[in-house]
């Protein structure tokens, strides 16, 4: 692309013009048997690597003019050797200008796709509010693919007249199918959070939504045994110092209290969403103490299954110990940096999401 020249762009642009000037001067002064004109093709070729078609064409034209000056100074413009060099230089300049145009079109397409992905993330995976009733929240999403913005991991929060409901989940698989399934679960959660009076009803609504969509993104039937979503659904009442939890095959949340980390293991976990037809199980709610100053950490398996170079899993409970007093945002900032340093090259093998929830002493 050719935006208004910046200092860095002008610095880069000086390289091909310096090359043209140097080759022209040396070629004019060189002995008759020495011909440096072919080196001029490097000028437009180098320009095409960082500039747009207009600038590339300008440098190519300057190279052709320089080759013509060399021809006039050494022999004549009609000399066969110089005529062929000029023709070759014109053709190569046209070719690299076309390549610069194609690269510019591709860059615009990539930019557009990135903006669409970011817009989709804002719609599907909305940022959590920093404060919801007596809770402070923070969230982070780490995509395994460098260019990705969203995958199969999901989280959301919704305010109700009596408290706050939250969900974190992980759709089996990757790609558009996982994104579509995540959007389906999140849409069902946002709609049902305000309609269902209790957690079992809410989870049953999520299960019904997943079961009612047996087709993949291409309209082809998907084996229901291969399409499922693990999830943890929580209800945090405003007036009770408790958190109610239904676990659907998801890793247990961690309760951070007084420098200690306690996994919130439920006695009767439900199967993942989409698999209840294979396991006749209800949605048992289990309650845990959740007092002011406590932090509940939700996460997906991409966090605890991240391996280092030795193959060791990321020790999330150990790394979270003693960090609850810094607040949810600081906690996730620390864990995010630590997780990326744990993974080789800072690249995760799977998407990872974390949500930190702190109960504060008042609602001001």
Keywords:
single chain; 364 residues; alpha+beta; six-stranded antiparallel β-sheet; 9 helices; 11 strands
Please report the number of helical segments.
9
Tell me roughly what share of residues is in helical segments: 40-55%
Q: Please report which band the strand proportion falls in: under 5%, 5-15%, 15-25%, 25-35%, 35-45% or over 45%.
A: 15-25%
Cα-based radius of gyration, to the nearest Å = 31 Å
- String of helices and strands: HHHHEEEEHHEEEEEEHHHE
The residue-averaged pLDDT reads 86
E-strand count: 11
The major pleated sheet works out as: 6 strands, antiparallel
Widest sheet: strand ordering:
1-2-11-10-7-8
- The low-pLDDT segments are none
Cα end-to-end separation: 50 Å
| Dominant shape | elongated
Please provide a written account of the structure.
- The protein is α+β, with helices and mostly antiparallel strands and 364 residues long.
- Helices cover 42% and strands 19% of the residues.
- It has 9 helices and 11 strands.
- It has helices spanning 7-29, 42-48, 53-74, 80-124, 175-192, 199-211, 301-304, 316-320, 328-342, and strands at residues 131-132, 135-142, 153-160, 163-171, 229-237, 242-248, 254-257, 260-263, 286-289, 295-299, 352-359.
- The strands form 2 sheets. The protein has a 6-stranded antiparallel β-sheet.
- α3 (53-74) runs antiparallel to α4.
- It is elongated and about 95 Å long.
- The relative contact order is 0.10.
- The model has no long low-confidence stretch (mean pLDDT 86).
